Amino acid sequence: MAFCRVSYCDIEGIEHAVEVTAASLCEAVALAAARFRRDDGWSACPPGRGCEFRVKTLPDSPVTYSIPVKKVETFALHGSVAGPRDILPKERIRELLGLDPFR
């Protein structure tokens, strides 16, 4: 598990950020997207499918990654799994993003 700061810029150029604890980059993006969409304070400019998130690992040796929501959605819906232990994390990501696995 890693502590991360996840942010995005809305259509007006305003940066929004939250801090999450996640096991993977995809989970960090899904947790942040769910929080941004759920919280009433973000409803004016929630992140869409084309949004790109910046994920910064904290606090030791910070590294920043850029990952589009579309890539996380594609992974959650169509990405391969290495074994049974990969199934539940993908289901959690689909649930957080509100994705239907049968679409």
How would you portray this structure in words?
- The chain is an alpha+beta fold.
- It has helices at residues 25-38, 69-78, 87-97; strands at 2-9, 15-22, 52-58, 64-68.
- The chain has one domain (2-97).
- A four-stranded antiparallel β-sheet has the order 2-1-3-4.
- Helix 2 packs across helix 3.
- It starts with a strand and ends in a 6-residue tail after the last helix.
- The model has no long low-confidence stretch (mean pLDDT 84).
Number of separate helices? 3
How many distinct domains? 1
Shape: globular
> Structural class, from helix and strand content?
alpha+beta
Strand order of the largest sheet: 2-1-3-4
- Unreliable residue runs: none
Q: Quote the beta fraction.
A: 25-35%
Bin the helical content: 25-40%
Round the mean pLDDT to the nearest integer and report it: 84
How far is the first residue's CA from the last residue's CA? 30 Å
Number of strands: 4
